[in-house]
Amino acid sequence: MKRKNILFINSSPKRLSEDSSLVLRMLEKRYDVTTILKDNQKVILPLFEAQVHRHDIVIFDHNTRHGIDIFEKMLAIAPKANYITLTSSIYCSDPRGCDHCMRHYRKVRILKPLRKKELFFAIEHFNKAECFYRDLCEPPPKHSFLYA
Description:
Elements: E1 5-10, H1 18-30, E2 32-37, H2 41-51, E3 57-61, H3 65-77, E4 82-87, H4 98-104, E5 106-111, H5 116-124
Parallel strand pairs: 1-2, 1-3, 3-4, 4-5
Helix pairs in contact: 2-3
């Protein structure tokens, strides 16, 4: 069986959490992983655009408005890519809500603290997976710095 190719992106590498480091180590044991650990979207986006079509799944770890701005641009570049977002926030990344995301993107969100079983299920069964928190999701408040 072919190993899945994962593109792992963290938009706050200076604050690469212990959780993110653990995720990366777990992924590298099972999958072929390419990482982009940069905080500047002028660096991230060209690297992403060059890499995205070579990977089965893109995992994006973020928690800031800066991260969601980058993610919106990633979706514009490759709207049909398979995305898993890792975040500490229950807020939707799209103000139009979960139904919009489910119709237009292939995206699954996993909340931190991360459960290994949840992540591996999302990777192994991506076509069957959907946002685990769909029914709990709500639009982000205008002044929130925590985004999904």
